[in-house]
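User: Structure tokens for this complex, please. No commentary.
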Amino acid sequence: MKLAIWSYEGPPHIGAIRVAAAMEGVHYLIHAPQGDSYADLLLTMIERRRTRPPVTYSSFQSRDLGRDMAALFQRTLRETVDRFRPRLLLVGASCTAELLGDDPGGLARALDLPVPVIALDLPANARKENWGAAETFYQIVRTLADRTLSPPPRNGRRPLCNLLGPTSLGFRHRDDVIEVSRLLEAMGIDVALTAPMGASPEDIKTIGRADFNVVLYPEIAAPAAAWLERTFHQPRIDTVPLGYGATRDFIARVAEVAGVVAPDAMIAGWSNLPWWSRSVDSTYLTGKRVVIFGDTTHAMAAARVATDELGLTVAGLGTYSRECQAVLKAAAQDLGAEALVTDDYLEVEDWIGRLRPELVLGTQMERHIAKRLGIASAVISAPVHVEDFPARYSPQMGFEGANVLFDSWTHPLMRGLEEHLLTMFRDDFEFNDASGPSHLPHAIPFSGTAAGPSSATPSTPAPVWAAEAERELGKIPFFVRGKARRNTEQFANDRGIAVITLGTLYDAKSHFAR
Amino acid sequence: MTVIPVMNEDCASPVADAFRRDVRQERGPRQMFCGLAGLIWLHRKMTDAFFLVVGSRTCAHFLQSAGGVMIFAEPRFATLLLEERDLAGLTDVDDGLDDAVARILKRRPDVRQIYLVGSCPSEVIKLDLSRAARRLTSTYHPRVTVRHYAASGLDTVFTRGEDACLAAIARDLPDAAPGARASLIVLGALPDIVEDQFRRLFDALGIGPVSFLPGKRQGSLPGVGRATRLLLAQPFLAETTRILEARGALRLPAPYPIGVEGTSLWLKAAADAWAVDAGRFDAVTAPGRERGIRALEGHAALLRQRRIFLFPDSELEIPLARFLSRELGMTVIEAGTPYLHRTLMDAELSLLPDGIPLTEGQDVDRQLDRCRAARPDLVLCGLGLANPLEAVGLTTKWSIELIFSPIHGYEQAGDLAQLFSRPMTRMTALDFGR
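Assistant:
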């Protein structure tokens, strides 16, 4: 048993829904009790989808259990096929139906339906959402791909590639696909197929026609891409263009595989990030401590951007995807950062509280933690929230994506000049501690209770502050005051100092000075 | 001063006999939440309670998706995930529960009551959470009480989770002292502001002592016995009512306090049980009725003769259909309800204008066919259906807002009407040019 306050991934059938809902002409029938249909609101509300997701739930209740559940499932199956006329039907069980031991695949096969059926076997209690999406996509590709196809002869034609991995409810997948397609277009490469997003069963049949595959989201597309490499000998590009440097690496790798030469201007990089980061206004970013948590792909990419492209210091690097933990741990070691692999929200919360970063780059859950601790934050990875589907074009990948990363990560921080002005004019009647950063109307001052001494280490009794030391603490700008308070208290605790004096405050300052 | 009628006598439509009214029964795929949803508002109402769902990753994901988007404070609920080994019976579930409860109480020392909430998987493997609740109560007594209820999708829809929770509390209420004088229990979670308004009205009417269930805190649980009178503020509390009736309490049949008329008749049921004379009742309720009626006017002008379709969701649909048709002059094309409890809905059905088609249960695709074919001016539906209906040009109101907003009583009648008029106003306010 495992206690979950929040969770990073849903059950595996949610992954399957994300694949089915991203495609055209596919319907997914889930054998599930009433109530599991809540998943529809993720798509209609969070993603603002205009149509009902192509999913039907058999919606059984207690009174059906004693009777013929098979008949209920088969009746729903027939009606679903009649009504929606899908060109591919996925069937599967949710956690409860799996426990009951019903066999949706067998029941569907027995009906001899006029549509190809894929029975998904997604162990509800052993696996999670991303695995479910990857398995579903792999099964679809494997079942539908026409194995007699191969790429047409080159004879001067443009290279063809498939873009694999984008789904419904993905973190900025919609815009990443546009951005990466533009990059490829500029290199003279055609995208033969994007899948699952926007692909029909007929499109998937032709997947073998491309020269190579671009894996945008390895969490979802890696198993399918590996199978395609074995079956069709299509090379796969798994350099993910997240960040400025990674985008240049991506271009180089694509050029190599596709046998094209990227335009010089493109290799030089069409992004504002390098100059924005080098210009003096960004000096204040130097060495700011950041903690990064997300799916492995986004977390690893963020670590590189943070260190090499923004000059931040990565204090912690973590992921909730256990699948690729070795790579992430190695990367953390190289950076001298503390690694964390867990899907336990409480553990992540402790970890962030302990590392005391100045910026948290994480999921919606870390945004919540950062808010509690009074730390600036930005979202870099799924799980998603309605805010992660902005009206504007806002990719994470490619050169425009790098611009977006620069803006969205530095925006929550206090601007460099503003930091200095606050220190100088601390007692100004309107430009003071309580006002917070000028561009953030609701910033929580660090002196609030959320960032108080008890939140990070609830078990240790806080030492007493002598009046003089407390007054001195008040002179420290509020955005570092919480950290100064915690550091000093920890320093005092470690040395058994019961009363913090002015001396203790400055001893602590010199101790923690790097 | 003019006397404001308690009943809306302008509404002259014939009313069908409640028990003979035709109700379409529908079965098929559904688009409704399970009873776990109840803890999302119960944990805000019961400020010292923590809800621990014993279930699957699906349960956790549901709570996060349905509750997480609405809650900006630290939630006092969590899921204890059953893993493969637990489901195979290879682990001691008691150990897992003990650890989780200890961890929760360490993190939230302010918690005084914990609810172990059963889910579909825990019901299927027949996990005995009531025994665990008793054991944990003896461990943490008297600081913390641990109770259990089941809110699986197998047995409960949406608001019935509140019923299951209140039923667990109802079983724990102390016996009223023998010979105790008449007391009133108001059943159903109400926002504090509404509770306070009702309390003032009961005081002014000389009705009391009054307790509200659930209360804000564990501790002051009312006694129950033959002198207890029950007034239901929500229609979905069948099991709680059954338990309290079995313990001697007497239910005061009434419509629900939705709209001016519903509120008046609801208060009247209590006033009659306390033999409050008509003059006093009129004097006490007149200001509220007057304000309520005035607040409805502007909305009624927008909504009169507009056609509305209500999808089944919270079981508030029939009281709402009554309010919308009698007080706002709307035409109800169809009112769906997950269940129809004829006894608890009797007083509502007697007020409901004849000819409003009622549906119990759901086949969501067929119901959507009927709704789209009817082209209503407004649709009340859940979050999964709203945007797809908007995208085909219909105007919708999310039903979940009726559970999260204060809608009961005189002072909220106008707010309730506004929930329906605002989507219509918005449609006319938007102009994107050609």
